[in-house]
Prior knowledge:
mainly alpha
Amino acid sequence: MRTFYTLTLTEWLEAWKEWKIVWLPLFFIxxxxxxxxxxxxxxxxxxxxxxxxxxxxxxxxxxxxxLDVFSATIHGQFNQFGLIVLIMSFMGLLxxxxxxxxxxxxxxxxxxxxxxxLSKWFSHGMISLFGILIGALTSYCLTFYWFxxxxxxxxxxxxxDFSLWTLFVVSLTLLIS
Length: 177
């Protein structure tokens, strides 16, 4: 257990040095703001875009529902752009350790491969889940403010479902690495 703790702290320190702990949550905050912002101000954006002569916005279109906005943020923005960025940032985790010789150095100590892989999976899974949680909370607050009430339990269930999918993607990325 002590080995797992030490390797996990090392991974957190490495993520801090690479600023992953800072820029991943900021990226997910930006994604969380984008969808409600675009849906709220789409009429204004289309009215002020140059050469928008053929674009007609239906004045009788229904106002987006809070669940639709929040779901579009999580399953649209986060699932497309967010996972691509996560995969790109976690790509080559094991390969870079192998190239620098760090993997050989760690595995010559009394450390099992399972503990080594589990510490990488745990630390990078927590970094990605933290970023997703911060971005989803930002999106939830904006959705609540602009579009109305959304049940916090329903939003939490959507976030948890997407978190499981994210952990699967992190696992797959680590496996391929």
